[in-house]
Every structure is written in C-alpha cells, then in structure tokens.
Specification:
Elements (H helix, E strand, L loop, with lengths): L1 H27 L13 H10 L6 H13 L14 H36 L4 H15 L2 H15 L15 H27 L2 H8 L4 H13 L3 H22 L5 H10 L3 H29 L1 H8 L2
C-alpha cells in the first residue's frame, strides 16, 4: 500500500509541475498588463515592473517563480499590493468551502434518494420523474440555473437573498445552484448500479435464504451499488471547483471563485497562478484519495498498481 501511494504521489507532483508551467506561460500571454491605468506615468509603471520582476526575460521569471513555488511561496498580489496570494486565498477559502461542502452533502443525499426510488420502483411514474430530474440537472448550465433561482426563489417568492454573503441564509441559493448537477449525477449512478446489482445471482440467493426485502436492500444491494460512487467523487469535485467560479460571480459571493475571475480581469498574474495552483492541488488530492479508496475497497487494484 505504501508503494502504491508513493507512486501516486510522484504522478501528483509531475502533474502539478506541468499545470503550473502551462498556466504560467498562458497568463503571460494574456492581453494587457496589471498596470494599464492611464493615470499612471511611464516612470511609475516602469518602477512597478521592476519591483515585481516583470522587466526580466520570461525564462528568468519562470525559473524564479518555480523556485518560490517549490518553497511554498506563491508571491504577492499585484492588485492588492502588499498582500500575499496565500493570505488572500486563505481569507476567502472558508466561504467557498462552506458553499461547496454544503452543495456536495445536499447533492449526495438527494441524489441517492432519487436513485434508490427510481431503482426500487423501476418502470413506474416515480422512476420516470427521477430520470427527468436527472436529465434536466445535467442539461441546464449553472449560469442559466443560477439566475432562475435568483428570480423565482429570491425576487418572486422572497425566500432567500439573491446576492452577497452575510449569514447562512445567503448560502442557500449558491449551494442549490451547485448541487443540482451533483444530484443528477449521483441519482443516475445509483439507479443504474442498483438495477445491475439487483439482477445478480447472489441477490436471488439472499432472497431464497429467507432474508426480508429490506435486509437484502440494505446489506447487499446498497452496499455494492454505492462502491461506484467513489468513481464519481473526482468529477464532482471538479464541478464544484470550476462551477463555483460562475456561481460566486453571479451571487457576488466573496469566495475564491469570484477572486479568480477578478484577477483575470485585472491581469493579476500572481493571483491567477496562485489560485490555479490551489485548485489543482485540491483536484489532484481528490484523485489521490479516490485511488487510495479504490485500493482499500478492492485489493486487486493495489496489487496491480504495485506491479506497474
């Protein structure tokens, strides 16, 4: 197991190196510059370029930045002068994490319930309704769903505030917007896997032994049908990370996603790179946890991984 995890950690570091390198050169290719304000004199702009090392050749900037990243230093923001990128990310992390975790928990619970209902009452009205909800949730983009929630649940019905983040009630609409895709994905997986498991011979054997229907569902069907959800967790994590960029901007939530969009608009290279690294580390860690869980659930994966 140690070799299995060590191999995955090596892949993780290599992937992160490629992501940081590609993002560095892409950010430098963005049109404009961080100090495009016409009020700044050429002398002041030149001093700022020299202060942040942007007057040096690109390969020198790249080498210095990678050396700093290797030491855990993400640099200072150009837009928020005097504040480090790490400080700004950690300041906004609690809000984004709260909304994201809330969305995942809600999506998993509701999605599993819908999937179980659809499988147990297969080819009935309940199954049809659950499938329709799943299809709509996957089809409707977040940037379309979010304004709809704002209009109907916020403006029309007045149940929730439509923007900003001052208390828990402000997190409901952003979390709902993020959770719809989670609900749809989990529901489809649960329905498909439960129907497949219920058709297996060992389920028929369990029923023949006299186990009640509820015992068969809880001990055999659900337990085996939930294993593939491990596969879904990494894509769901991607969605929560990237989807929050749009949702936080629409709902004016002071989270990491909103900050990333603003940093792109003002060409804050350090903030763009720092946020990208943060998102990448979260995603790669999710994949690592997924691999470890696979190794725990199915030892054959661990053994084959050690022989690679």
């Amino acid at each position: 197991m140690i070799r299995y995890v060590a191999r995955r950690l090596v892949y993780m570091v290599a992937a992160l190196f490629i992501i940081v390198s590609v993002t560095f050169f892409i950010s430098k290719a963005l049109p404009g510059n961080p100090w495009a304000d016409p009020k700044l004199t050429p002398e002041v702009r030149e001093q700022l370029y020299e202060k942040y090392g942007l007057d040096e050749p690109l390969y020198v900037q790249y080498a210095k930045y990678m050396a700093n990243v290797a030491q855990g230093n993400l640099g200072n923001s150009f837009y928020f002068e005097g504040r480090s990128v790490s400080q700004l990310i950690l300041q906004r992390l609690p809000v984004s994490a709260f909304i994201g975790i809330q969305a995942v928990i809600f999506g998993l619970v509701v999605g599993m319930v819908l999937g179980i209902v659809a499988a147990l009452w297969h080819n009935t009205l309940w199954d049809t309704l659950a499938v329709m909800v799943a299809i709509l949730g996957v089809s409707v983009p977040t940037f379309v769903l979010a304004p709809i929630l704002q209009y109907w649940l916020g403006l029309k019905l007045g149940w929730f505030p439509i923007a900003f983040f001052e208390s828990w009630i402000y997190s409901v609409l952003p979390s709902l917007a993020l959770s719809v895709f989670v609900v749809s994905t989990v529901a489809r997986f649960m329905r498909t896997e439960m129907l497949e498991v219920m058709g297996q011979d060992y389920i028929t054997l369990a029923k023949a032994k006299g186990l009640s229907g509820l015992a068969v569902i809880l001990k055999h069907v659900l337990r085996n049908a939930m294993i593939p959800l491990v596969t879904v967790m990494a894509p769901l994590t991607i969605y929560i990370i990237t989807g929050s960029l749009v949702v936080e901007q629409i709902f004016a939530v002071p989270g990491i996603g909103e900050q990333f969009v603003d940093s792109v608009l003002v060409n804050d290279y350090a903030m763009i790179l720092g946020t990208t690294i943060f998102f990448s580390v979260l995603f790669i860690l999710a994949l690592l946890i997924q691999d470890i869980l696979y190794g725990i659930i199915d030892p054959r994966i661990r053994v084959s991984g050690a022989k690679e």
